[in-house]
Write a structure and sequence with these properties.
The complex is a heterodimer of chains A (408) and B (246).
Chain A (H helix, E strand, L loop, with lengths): L2 H14 L1 H39 L3 E6 L2 E2 L5 E2 L7 E2 H8 L4 E15 L4 E9 L1 H7 L3 E4 L4 H5 L4 E4 L1 H8 L8 E4 L2 E9 L14 E5 H8 L7 E2 L1 E6 L5 H15 L10 E5 H44 L1 H9 L4 H37 L8 H27 L3 H6 L2
Helix pairs in contact in A: 1-11, 2-9, 2-11, 2-12, 9-11, 9-12, 11-12
Chain B lengths: L8 H5 L4 E12 L2 E13 L4 E5 L6 H8 L7 E6 L2 E2 L5 H10 L1 E4 L11 H11 L4 H14 L15 H13 L5 E5 L7 H18 L2 E6 L2 H4 L4 E6 L2 E7 L6
Parallel strand pairs in B: 3-8, 3-9, 6-7, 7-8
Antiparallel strand pairs in B: 1-2, 1-4, 4-5, 9-10
Classes of the chains: A alpha+beta (408), B alpha/beta (246).
Amino acid sequence: MNFTQIALEAFRAMGMNKLRTSLTMLGIIIGVGAVVMMLAIGESVRTDINQRIASMGSNLFIIFPGSQTSSGGVRVGRGGMQNLTEGDAQALQRLENVDYVAPVIQRGFQVQSGFSNWNTMVYGVTPEFFSIKAWDTSSGSLFGEMEIRSISRVAVIGQSVATNLFGDFDPVGQTIRIQNRPFEVIGVLADKGSDLGGSDQDDSIYIPMSTARQQVIRQWFPGSVNYIMVQAQSARTMADVKYDLTQTMRVRHRIREDQEDDFTVRDLSAIAEAAAGIATGLTLLLGAIGSISLLVGGIGIMNIMLVSVTERTREIGIRMALGARRSDVLFQFLTEAIVICVCGGAAGVALAYLGTVAISKFSPLQVGMSAFGIVLAFGFSAAIGIFFGFYPAKRASSLKPVDALRYE
Amino acid sequence: MTSVTSVAAPVLAAAPLLKLRGVRKSYVTGDIETPVLKGIDLEIGRGEFVAIMGQSGSGKSTLMNILGCLDTPTSGEYSLDGHEVATLRDDDLARVRNRTIGFVFQGFNLLKRMPLIDNVALPLLYAGLDRAQSRTRAQVRLEQTGLGPYAFRLPNQISGGQQQRVAISRALVNDPPLILADEPTGNLDTQTSVEILNLFTELNRSQGITLLVVTHEPDVARHANRLVRLKDGLVTYDGPVEDAHL
């Protein structure tokens, strides 16, 4: 018997007891559906987290003013005073393996538009800031070196600000007032959601550093900045960069050997790693839950196949009397199990597809099925068919013809 | 009605189709060994029509299973169509069953959910033919037994006599030299039994097919040329049917 005939026989056998076949298949459908869907959910959670991490900037250090003990013995915590300068930023820019350095000054303001007003955070930044964050606009454009040099009154605003100040209108080309000075909105940033700390990254306004310093945000002393972001060229050079920038900062701030740093270096990769770890763990957990249901489905297959072999003992005897070899019988029953599993697998993938569509529609998560997940589930269900079908098939094929024929 | 003038002496001169020497078979249940066949010597030539008779428990079914390569003897030699069956492996035994032997059973043993044509085609599929070829040949066989129009019915949609004709078609489809029939008329009424037995006689006479029929009915045995009578696992009579005082 060739493969087509064996497959036809398998379909015929499945058709003999449709209710039983479909119930057996249901186990596989649910199992495969669960695996595919769980993997899809896990994957989309991971993608979501990765996007959030990427929007914070990758391979990133943030240098904050650090703890400091004054001559009187009063210890001041991080950010307690401003001792970072644009000079520091320029010095760090010259380090090896550093891509971008972006000093940032910030302050909250009540901002007005022609329609409304809104309290938000105003940031004075350089173009490097947008490069580090890998941010882009959804309409309009970002500002560049030109606007810094000409001290332009232009602003790039986040989605939340745009909504609160302009409602449904396109803010680009409109004017907002910060500290009573008019700024032209030249761009609206693409939607980014909240960062991993939970604060809304879209609720902010970005204006050129030079304009901010001269006209909007009063500093402690000329050239001081709130914090400095430093982006290393790659994840591998992170450690080197951290060492170099610490040394540079200590030299520039004239810190003696025995004194502690007056700045704090925060490394976002640790947060990113933790988040990625959580996402991976979540995917594994969901996959494991799905796998268990697939396993239960597989055991269902084995159970039904064993019943089927017992029930069809006489048929097996007849087939052997007519010249079926043991391998013919083995393949017949194995094929039945595999066909049930593969059909169940296909239906399970379809079910998972409906599930992901429903989840995407009714929850904030955008779930898409991956080709990998589908291939994995199919391979897995075929493997389940072979694994759990083999024992019953082996049992059928090792019957003695005379015993099988005599079976009532 | 059968011509029994000779027990095919000229045929016996050639190598016999099957030959048993000292065949024993015993079943072991726990510590108790139950001998069923206690040393059977038998030679059957090509073209013979042999009836094997015996009461239940005489060992005729066991002998039938061994002859049909469905079971193996505990000891003794059995050669069939030149093969020493005892030395064959499972796959070769399957091949012998497929090519050399056609089975006809008391309960017909058709596969229930399969159209008649596919039942008949099954031995051809196991012989390696493709579906189309084997269906064509199965259709021809069914038409020879007058069942052509029923080819796509299921076994439970035709009468018992028709089912047995289908089973005979299936037994013949691979052109085996030997047909083994185990109580072939046991489930049939008298009229149908006669039809089936006439079909056997016809096959034996016109196509030279060797027929071995196991039965406990003298009326069935009378259709054969030669009778082998078993009792308690031994052959007690082997000779022409008309000398057996049935």
